[in-house]
Amino acid sequence: MKFSIKSVVRMLAIAGVSLIVLNSCQSTPDTDVAQSAITKVDYFHLKNAGGQRESQDPMIYTEAAYYLHGALTNQERVARVGNYYTVYWKTEDETSPVSIQFQYTQSKTGSAVKMQEQTYTTHNGKGSAEFNILGRDYFKDGRVISWKATATQNGVEIGSQASFLWK
């Protein structure tokens, strides 16, 4: 296979132009915008206290069995029915306390916003907070419709994450 000087120059020019175009499309991280301190929110809705499976997926059955573990009587099992949320968070400042607020609305309360809060005075820069809406609160006011998790440190909001339906 023979290449003429003209075809080699043409191939190098095309390769050079394509490298310039690809590099110009590359994005750079914006250093002024801080990443959210809320990294993930896991959700599980335990709908019934019985042993019947709601899904054929073994992971869903295992998670329900995890939340019902240790509940021997039917009354104990019913008290564990509801919404379970695990909020994972991280921060760069390991010396100041971190407060995680969980605001939520329920189906039978209209637009009333309820709140639960947990404060961590000692931490290694990351952790998880568990929030549960169970038993009487769940049966009286209904399932959780929308929620928002907010992390604050030194009185300043360092991150938040909300459900799609949060106002």
Number of strands: 7
Q: Strand portion, in percent?
A: 35-45%
- Measure the end-to-end span: 67 Å
H-E string: HEHHEEEEHEE
The DSSP helix count reads 4
Structural class by secondary-structure content: alpha+beta
Q: Mind describing the biggest β-sheet?
A: 4 strands, antiparallel
What characteristic shape results from the CA principal axes? extended
Main sheet: which strands, in order across?
A: 4-3-6-7
Mean pLDDT: 82
Q: What's the gist of this structure?
A:
By secondary structure, the protein is an alpha+beta fold.
Describe the structure.
- The chain has 167 residues and is of the alpha+beta class.
- The chain has a domain at 38-45 and 85-162.
- The protein is built from 4 helices and 7 strands; from the N terminus they run αβααββββαββ.
- The strands form 2 sheets. Strands 4-3-6-7 form a 4-stranded antiparallel beta sheet, with no helix packed on it. A 3-stranded antiparallel beta sheet has the order 1-2-5.
- The longest helix has 21 residues, at 5-25.
- It is extended and about 85 Å long.
- Residues 21-34 have low confidence and may be disordered.
